[in-house]
Amino acid sequence: MTDIIRKDVKDRLENGDYSCSKELTLSMFSGKWKIVVLFHLGTDGPYRFNELMRLLPRVTHKVLTNQLREMVEDGLISREVITDSRVKVTYRITDRGRSLMPILNQMYEWGEKRIKELQITLQINVNPVEEIKGDELR
Question: Which of 49, 70, 86, 122 is most buried (CB neighbours < 10 A)?
Answer without folding.
Answer: 70
